[in-house]
Amino acid sequence: MTHHHQADLSASISILSAVVTVSSIQPFVSLCAGLIAIVSGLLAARFYYWKTKFLKEDNKDANS
């Protein structure tokens, strides 16, 4: 009168589908994280370029 076999099978199917879903989403998540890192790096480089440029201009004005 117990249905342990059916419960075990259902749990196995649920776990298997969760693993398949996570493994299929992982490349997309990695791609998004990589693109965010690239954009972040470019914006940081742009920020420091402009900040250094303005500091050099301010320094030249102060020496004149």
List keywords for this structure.
1 helix; single chain; 94% helix; mainly alpha; 0% strand; 64 residues; rod-shaped
Largest sheet: none
- Low-pLDDT regions: none
- List SSEs in N-to-C order: H
What structural category do the secondary elements indicate? mainly alpha
**pLDDT averaged residue by residue:** 84
Distance linking N and C termini: 96 Å
Percentage of residues in DSSP E strands: under 5%
Shape: rod-shaped
DSSP summary: helix tally: 1
Concise structural overview:
The chain has 64 residues and is an all-alpha fold.
Could you describe the 3D structure shown?
The protein is mostly helical. It contains one helix and no strands. The chain has one helix spanning 4-63. The longest helix has 60 residues, at 4-63. The relative contact order is 0.05.
Write the layout of secondary structure elements.
Blueprint: H1 4-63
